[in-house]
Amino acid sequence: MKINEHVATLESSYLFSRIRQKVKEYKTQNPGRPVTNLGIGDVTLPLVPAVVDAMTKAVSEMGVADTFRGYCDEQGYLFLRQAVCDYYVKKDISLHPDEVFISDGAKSDLGNILDVFARENRVLIPDPVYPVYVDTNVMAGREIVYIEGTIDNGFLPMPDWNVKADIIYLCSPNNPTGAVYNKEQLETWVEYALENSAVILFDSAYEAYIQDKDLPTSIYEIDRAQECAIEFCSLSKTAGFTGVRCGYTVVPLKLVSSGVSINKLWLRRQTTKFNGVPYIVQRGAQAVFSEPGLAQIRRSVEYYMENARLIAQRLAELGIWYVGGDNAPYLWLKCPDGMSSWTYFDYLLSTAGIIGTPGAGFGLMGEGFFRFSSFGKRNDIITALQRL
Ligand code: PLP
Fold this sequence. Notes:
CATH superfamily of the largest domain: Type I PLP-dependent aspartate aminotransferase-like (Major domain)
Order of helices and strands: HHEHHEHEHEEHEEHEEEHHHEEHEEEH
Distance between the termini: 53 Å
CATH topology of the largest domain: Aspartate Aminotransferase, domain 2
Number of domains: 2
CATH architecture of the largest domain: 3-Layer(aba) Sandwich
Mean pLDDT: 96
Shape: globular
Bound molecules: pyridoxal-5'-phosphate
Radius of gyration: 21 Å
Number of helices: 13
Helix content: 25-40%
């Protein structure tokens, strides 16, 4: 038996486990001192009433023979795929339910989609970014080319036409920088992908946080994107589903490579390796897209965005350079005095009892930067900002 050496080459500890370890040590050495997590990537507000009601009703249905449901369609119930299509209509995007795949969250699909692509494909990944894109491609032994996000390009790298790629990851709004591509920039990426017969894997997990009406919340707002892009979305940060687990992936029927439909390949892959999302969860997700559901989750997003505003205000008062927080729940700051991101992590924890996320965890270009998130509870954030 031989192991997959590519998995063995991955760094053993994921960013957040190292943070947890450091915080545990600090708390043991400093009992009673307040510690606030401003780096948290998980949400803190509970599920909204529309979702709770729909899931409660679904639980009751499961306890009655006539309405009990067993295995579902692997792609997801039509009622939810249709609700997703209706949500896209509000963005002036027309999708067919066959193009929507219900998932147990964006993370799984972002990793699993690689099953339908050959190993020799060349992958383009922005840096800094959500580490899952890199790790899943390292596991598969694929060649990765990084595209650098810098202060100069606003952490929104653009294509280099001299570099050929087959698979391109774009994350907008970006985790960790909070940067969002505008329409012209996405048009350039679509043009590049079409010219190179490449596919764009567009992660829009934070689309609900975009406040600026001129910024695209879906790649399909761009002409011909349905010929070259797959979109991954999640209810985790939009509707507090981090623990419930539900998302959706759009694989357009127009996306064809060498005469083969990627939609059909993905369906084949899913029917083999995935048995669908629980009925109860899908009813909860459907309620997110109802009128009351959308109004309720909008209020949750507003709550987090107000947190972001408070953090931004404090950083400005302290003269700390930052971006983000206006169309995303993340703020990306420059570590003061040239500190490395882990040094700044230790410094903030020991002097102010504040936990953040070191930029180095998001790629080489993240070194020297630091991520704050706005997912905490308001009072915790206010007291932490006073200590800051
Ligand atoms: N994509 C990005 C950019 C994320 O930051 C996250 C979670 O933090 C995910 C995807 C995964 O979301 P899910 O909870 O749906 O798996």
